[in-house]
Amino acid sequence: QGQLVESGGGLVQTGGSLRLSCAASGRAFSSPTMGWFRQAPGKEREFVASITWRSGVTDYGDSVKGRFIISRDNAKNTVYLQMNSLKPEDTAIYYCAGSYSATRSPAPNAYRYWGQGTQVTVSE
After folding, report:
1. Which of 1, 39, 85, 111 is the most buried (most CB within 10 A)?
2. What are the angstrom distances between the C-alpha of 56 and each of 20, 50, 87, 109?
3. Which of 20-29, 46-55, 110-119 has the lowest mean pLDDT?
């Protein structure tokens, strides 16, 4: 089995920054693509960003492009999400996910492994 553990969430003011980390172990590290999703109360799970382990190809959701940066450290089996210029609408639980196969799809059903999430709250 695989496991994904997120960390780095917290409370930050509008315009501030946070860096989320996702540590992968077991089969989760074999996922070709790693993604970040977020879900706010009453809203659908939203694609944030993804990156491939091998080539580092990245994709971003429209709402975060230009503000968030996804990266990975293969030696540490860790994926990061650097979040800058945070807005109140970024408030959500952020989930790390590992894909079934090589993909650049933003759909949650393309991902097999999921972390438990970390709360990000941006105050006005």
Report:
1. 111
2. 18, 9, 27, 21
3. 20-29
In this model, does residue 1 exceed pLDDT 80? no
Percentage of residues of the chain with pLDDT beyond 90:
90
State the Rg of the chain over Cα.
13
DSSP readout, 36-100?
Answer: EEEE-TTS--EEEEEEETTT--EEE-TTTTTTEEEEEEGGGTEEEEEE-S--GGG-EEEEEEEES
Query: Any residues with CB less than 8 A from the CB of 76 and at least 6 apart, and which?
Result: 23
